[in-house]
Amino acid sequence: MKEIPTEIIVFYDALLVQKEIPRNFRFYYKKWLRYYLDFCQKYNFKQSDKESLSYFIKKLKEKNQTDQQRKQALDAVSICYQIEKKKNDPDSAQALNNKNENIPTKKSGLKSTNEDWRQIYGALNAEIIMGGRATLSY
Fold first, then answer.
1. Distance set, CA 117 to CA 113, 114, 130, 131 (Å)
2. d(CA 43, CA 56)
3. Residues 120, 138: contact at Cβ < 8 Å?
């Protein structure tokens, strides 16, 4: 499946946050966008041409996607169309970038301690192998 280009996904993630799309739906929105990009490539549509969206939705109907799924796909792709408009407006682009910078990542809370964890990993490995008979020492 076609990956969403990096220059699009950064803005897209920021728009999903801005539009308050629930976190548990964002995966599906990105999935629909990837399907749309694949569709455009397969059937020689320009992804920036909004007319291709109606053909995409029609194809989803042919593939027995539910009304709810087609509505979500329509919303997901429509959000993508807003990226070009936002990228061309310097104030909007800056606001999107700022909003995206505030999205916490799993790595942001981790601190490097430069500790040597080999001894602890070795003890943990022994604990697992021995089925609980080895003792961990710190």
1. 10, 9, 20, 21
2. 10
3. yes
Of 72, 91, 71, the residue nearest 31 (C-alpha): 72
d(CA 14, CA 29): 13
- pTM of whole model > 0.70? no
The residue among 111 and 43 whose pLDDT is bigger is 43
SS3 of the chain: helix, strand, coil, percent, to 5: 70, 0, 30
CA-nearest of 77, 34, 31 to 54 is 77
Determine the Cα–Cα distance for residues 60 and 66; give it in Å rounded to an integer: 8
Alpha-carbon Rg for the chain, nearest whole angstrom, is 22
- Cα separation of 6 and 9, whole Å? 5
Domain spans, the chain = 6-106
Hunting for tokens 């964002």 — which residue is that? 26
Tell me: the pLDDT tens digits for 60-91?
Answer: 999 999 999 999 999 999 999 998 776 666 66
Cα 60 from Cα 40, distance rounded (Å) = 13
